[in-house]
Amino acid sequence: GVMKELGAKVYRFSLWWARIIPEGGGNDPINQGGIDHYVKFVDGLLANDITPFIRVLHWDVPSGLDKRYGKILKGEEFPLDFEMCARVVFKALPKVKNWITFNGGCSS
């Protein structure tokens, strides 16, 4: 692909939480199609000798969580929901060795 032609050795990208768990909650259904998308994408990078660095959260949380909690980061369940999403992707993408949990800090 283009990245290989350009000589890229590393590619950092963010996951879209709603693609993995559409409603976002730890007890909500997992979208296997979303998981499959990222598995295929990572496999493509690795096949081209490009190391993936995956950011789990870049502040694009599922709208279902906002509806459920109001102010998302204030919800007591939010950390548990994030943990579940992280565990799902860590398990689904064992070939990935480089993870970034959050894009940056947030204060309120």
UniProtKB/TrEMBL annotation:
<keyword id="KW-0378">Hydrolase</keyword>
<dbReference type="InterPro" id="IPR001360">
    <property type="entry name" value="Glyco_hydro_1"/>
</dbReference>
<dbReference type="GO" id="GO:0008422">
    <property type="term" value="F:beta-glucosidase activity"/>
</dbReference>
<dbReference type="Pfam" id="PF00232">
    <property type="entry name" value="Glyco_hydro_1"/>
</dbReference>
<dbReference type="InterPro" id="IPR017853">
    <property type="entry name" value="GH"/>
</dbReference>
<comment type="similarity">
    <text>Belongs to the glycosyl hydrolase 1 family.</text>
</comment>
<dbReference type="GO" id="GO:0005975">
    <property type="term" value="P:carbohydrate metabolic process"/>
</dbReference>
<keyword id="KW-0326">Glycosidase</keyword>
<protein>
    <submittedName>
        <fullName>Putative beta-glucosidase</fullName>
    </submittedName>
</protein>
